[in-house]
Design brief:
By secondary structure, the protein is of the alpha/beta class. The chain has a domain at about 40-130 and about 215-315: TIM Barrel (Alpha-Beta Barrel), CATH 3.20.20.140. It contains ten helices and seven strands. It binds zinc ion (2 copies).
Length: about 325
């Protein structure tokens, strides 16, 4: 998921030095991270099999062209793109592809969360695990229902977008999401941008918002672990201030923390890094690239994910990192 939600409380609201805008992706607003060199790792991306813009092969191509050697395709609630890429791989892929998913868990009973959600990444899940696929299929059915109700609400508002929805929604295993509706609203001339559509119409509290139903955070973590994956708490810069919650999630099986996130400022990254070390969580990182208004290369230029993150993720999955060419010097 991407886009901005309505303004919320800053993370330092109580002390008055808010560093982020309280938007969907917890963009922090301090000094940006300055990449010491071009990043060869990206462990968080989306394709058109969920709410991204690029088809899976185009995403891999763009990432490889930008110098990425290890890429996680982490579509929401689907491994369809990963399976397609592996099936097409008679020739080796241009990079090491790590199967992954992102589950937008519904955090009922946990307050002060954007849209009441915690996003859990599952890095290295088995893309051919039947039980996990059945779980994801239920999630996708929930998404399809929510999508339909949002379209109905937009029609009732006189903002029908049916003629502007992309065809790829019909590809088997595609997980529908709000950005597709937001892009259709832009195409139909009902919104100036995806962010504008999210902010005015689709975010919680707005006229076309529909409550999500699906896995809770503990269930999402358990399902990912059962499928052999590393459960990671995604883009949650409030972690330091909400240690009880993080520890509770660790009790449920959480093992990783997204530290190097594109929308985190340098101070937040440092803080998250220290927290991951303190709690012995595996640090991960990625662009969360979706493709609205930017190419992959543009997104990639603003991230830095240390190669060590990929090495630690592979080690924690019990997988050999031998395929990662990080022993070679930077070009
Ligand atoms: Zn997310
Ligand atoms: Zn994401």
């Amino acid at each position: 998921m991407t886009g901005s939600g309505p303004d919320g409380e800053g993370r330092r609201g109580a002390t008055g030095s808010s560093r982020y805008r309280g938007t969907a992706y917890r963009a922090t607003t301090g000094a940006p991270v300055v990449p010491p060199h071009s990043s060869r790792v990206d462990l968080h991306t989306h394709s058109s099999r969920s709410d991204g813009v690029l088809e899976p092969p185009a995403l891999v191509e763009a990432a490889a062209a930008a110098g990425v050697k290890c890429l996680a395709l982490a579509d929401h609630d689907t491994l369809a793109g990963v399976r397609e890429l592996f099936a097409a791989g008679e020739r080796p892929l241009a990079l090491e592809l790590l199967p992954a998913v992102e589950i937008n868990s519904v955090a009922t009973g946990i307050d002060r969360l954007w849209e009441g959600e915690l996003h859990i990444l599952g890095l290295g899940v088995d893309p051919f695990d039947d039980a996990f696929e059945a779980t994801l299929e239920r999630q996708r059915q929930g998404r399809a229902h929510r999508f339909e109700v949002m379209l109905e609400q937009l029609r009732a508002l006189g903002l029908g977008v049916d003629a502007y929805l992309p065809d790829e929604g019909t590809v088997v295993g595609t997980a529908l999401g709000r950005p597709k509706i937001a892009r259709a609203l832009v195409a139909a001339g009902h919104a100036a941008s995806v962010d504008d559509a999210m902010r005015r119409l689709l975010a919680r509290g707005r006229p076309a918002y529909v409550q999500r139903h699906g896995l809770g955070p503990r269930e999402a973590i358990a399902a990912i672990a059962a499928a052999g994956g590393l459960p990671v708490l995604a883009h949650f810069p409030d972690a330091r201030d909400r240690m009880d919650l993080v520890r509770e999630l660790m009790g449920a099986g959480l093992r990783g923390l997204e530290v190097h996130y594109r929308r985190f400022d340098a101070e937040t990254v440092a803080e998250m890094e220290a927290l991951a070390t303190e709690l012995r969580l595996v640090p991960t990182g990625g662009s969360d690239y979706h493709g609205d208004g930017e190419t992959y290369a543009q997104a990639h230029a603003t991230i830095f994910v240390p190669e060590e993150d990929a090495t630690l993720v592979f080690a924690s999955l019990g997988r050999s990192a031998a395929g990662l060419p990080f022993d070679q010097p930077m070009p």
